[in-house]
Amino acid sequence: MSKLFPSITIKQVAQEAGVSIQTVSRVVNNRYDVAPETRQRVQEAIARLGYQPNAMARGLASRRSRTLGLITQDFNDPFFTQVTTGAEQEAHEHGYFFMLGSVCCEKEEEPKYLRLLTERHVEGVLLIRGGGFDDADHLLKLQGHGVPVVTTGFYLPGAPFTVIDVDNIDGGWQATRHLIDNGHRQIATITGPKNWKSAQDRLQGYCKALAEAGIDYNETLLGEGSWHHRSGYGAIQAILSRNLAFSAIFAQNDRMAIGAIQALRQHGLQVPENISVIGYDDLPEAEFASPALSTLRQPAVEIGQAATRELIHQIESPEAAPRQLLYNAELIVRNSVLPYRSM
Amino acid sequence: MSKLFPSITIKQVAQEAGVSIQTVSRVVNNRYDVAPETRQRVQEAIARLGYQPNAMARGLASRRSRTLGLITQDFNDPFFTQVTTGAEQEAHEHGYFFMLGSVCCEKEEEPKYLRLLTERHVEGVLLIRGGGFDDADHLLKLQGHGVPVVTTGFYLPGAPFTVIDVDNIDGGWQATRHLIDNGHRQIATITGPKNWKSAQDRLQGYCKALAEAGIDYNETLLGEGSWHHRSGYGAIQAILSRNLAFSAIFAQNDRMAIGAIQALRQHGLQVPENISVIGYDDLPEAEFASPALSTLRQPAVEIGQAATRELIHQIESPEAAPRQLLYNAELIVRNSVLPYRSM
DNA sequence: GTGAAAGCGCTAACAT
DNA sequence: ATGTTAGCGCTTTCAC
How confident is the model at residue B110, as a pLDDT? Predict the structure, then answer.
């Protein structure tokens, strides 16, 4: 149980190279005040001994852990994992590592995980989340202690966090607009959970597009889902059972769109011949759904990269003000939308 | 840039509680040799000051980082993310954290990431990978240095790592057997990359089931994919273009199965009426594919949990011998397989 | 350009 | 049951 790390220390390298430990430290940290010849000698000693600096000792002495915390909500959602992939890449490029805080915890547990991350002296926290917050006290406190927080997927109005996200109002607008441009006027929509910021925004975009086209907003054509396939299926079943007329659906993510298509099919309705459907995300599976799904692409990997870049920037320049960066979703036209024709 | 961690130290807690540093340490570490009343007093001081032990200092002094390394290959593959989810849960239950080593690196980069993880003194490494190894020198060396390695998704024959995986030979056999039981005898298969252990094993199970049924193995009915939707699509296109007769397909994962179904459909072939298809994984999307995909379910989350449990066990009981734990895949029957009938 | 001394916050081993 | 003394391996500060 009592583990041993019989590793080479800076002391041994110093001895091997015939210099003091500071000189080794300087070489390791790429300081400029080392004679080229000395540097060379030290580097050889390092290579010969296979020396690796001990990050914990370094962190303790320098008060920098070069570690970031990642808190995310749902690794079953490909959007989240793609953001994570981008985040991880970017961190490594800057010499940082991510600690996996939690991937599926209840909202109530978040402060606990944050505390654990603090013990580990993470220098910043990336929060990939959808929303569902009423209070962000623990996050504010964290940032107050000098640990910057960057969020993706949600934000508290007025909270001083850097936010990197997709412009979901615009995305919802684009999706709905595409349907309207194809002549549809009775457009059902399946939203994500109402307490998600992205769901609210996409819905707002939907309403805006409707209003611009002079179409009345009809609440009975709205279903709330949970982002999962099954919830899209259920939402459309419910709308169908109400016997409402509609010719198109805007599902707020691809998975719900695919679930919706299955419900439609089971009711004898073909997509896109009878009903047009547009999704959101552009998951890999969207292209291979039947029919291939028209959707809005979110640049998830870029978002992860940008968020991490911002986080590191804030760590290294604490005076940097929090900012908001909104990416645009891109309309991907495939085969699930057809011009409207009355039946 | 020079960060500050103006946090409460053990010293301040000691002062506040009127005891020595040692006593605080004992309370924090739940040692039994503290008088209940003293313990109480210390705990109050801790609460009052909001003290959080510094994990780096702890790690340096105790030589235990309570940190694990995670190296994985592809977060776009839901199987990998589900394993990660399970791993992360289990780690937290034991008071460990995972550092995200790399999620998409080239095989050549792995030693580099391992080295970086070593600098951080991870106490063990979980490798979620598919294969593609000819040498595991760096892993062997790591384990030789007392850092246990647990793998999922692949193993080197004879390498002394604990392996937690699915019995893919059995899984491949079950899938093929299900097709044979439905009267199919000309069964195409789409494999993963040949250098993946799981692909090899599933193929071996396929061959075994064929042989048992007295069916000759026909190499022209085999296509190699990359696990992605598109590669399943391409593999079936290729087989179709050769004008070979077959009535069923075993795709080694769901995504390739879905891609294959699209290729079939574009050639005017309906699933399951003309061709039966079975996948592997049971991703959420399998149930909502059209038709709903019959497949083999892998207990991915459990595998992640078990792998982490084993890893921690090896860390805490270094004498523990590596072992292999194979889970069974479970046949999920849906609507993509129909009994054979000649056309 | 290089070295010596001090200390980061904690635990381990020994005291008492 | 509690305190004292040494470090863990490194960076920092300040000499030279």
Answer: 82
**Mutation to test the B interface, candidates A1, A5, A71, most B Cβ within 10 Å:** A5
Domain ranges across chain A: 10-62, 67-166+300-328, 168-298
> pLDDT tens across A105-117, in order?
677 788 888 888 9
Could you please report the per-residue DSSP string of B87-110? HHHHHHHTT-EEEEEESS--GGGH
Distance from CA of A108 to the nearest CA of B (A): 16
**Does the model's pTM come out above 0.70?**
yes
The domains spanning B10-62 and B67-166+300-328 adopt the same CATH topology? no
Q: What whole-number distance in Å separates Cα of residue A153 and Cα of residue A80?
A: 9
Query: B103 and A85: CB-CB below 8 Å?
Result: yes
Distance CA(B337)–CA(B289), nearest Å, equals 13
Phi/psi-derived region of residue B164, left when phi > 0, alpha when psi is between -120 and 50, beta in every other case: beta
Strands lying side by side in the sheet with A222-224:
A222-224, A187-191, A248-251, A276-278
What's A296's DSSP letter? E
Chain A residues with CB-CB distance to B225 below 8 A: none
| Residue A248 pLDDT > 50 | yes
Most confident among A147-156, B56-65, B206-215 (mean pLDDT): B206-215
The CA distances from residue B270 to B184, B232, B254, B287, B294, in Å, are 16, 16, 17, 18, 15
CA atoms within 13 A on the CB side of B246: 28
Topology classification of domain B67-166+300-328: Rossmann fold (3.40.50)
| B320 CB neighbours strand C below 7 A | no
- Could you say which nucleotides of strand C lie within 7 A of any protein CB atom? 1-5, 7-13
A168-298, CATH topology level: Rossmann fold (3.40.50)
A194-223 confidence digits (pLDDT tens)? 989 899 999 999 999 999 999 999 999 999
Of A278, A271, A273, which is closest to residue A249 (Cα–Cα)? A278
Which residues, at least 6 apart from B80, have a Cβ–Cβ distance to it below 8 Å? B72, B73, B74, B128, B153
Q: What is the mean pLDDT of chain A?
A: 91
How many angstroms separate the CA atoms of B28 and B165, rounded? Answer: 38
CB B77 within 8 A of CB B103: no
| Burial (CB count within 10 angstroms: exposed 0-12, middle 13-18, buried 19+), residue B208 | middle
B315, A3: Cβ pair inside 8 Å? yes
Q: Write down how long chain B is.
A: 343
The CATH number that domain B10-62 falls under is 1.10.260.40
Distance from CA of B59 to the nearest CA of A (A): 7
Contact B145 A1 (CB under 8 A): no
Question: What sign has the CA pseudo-torsion B69, B75, B78, B81?
Answer: positive
In chain A, residues 38 through 57 whose Cβ sits under 7 angstroms from any atom of nucleic acid strand D: 51, 53-54, 57
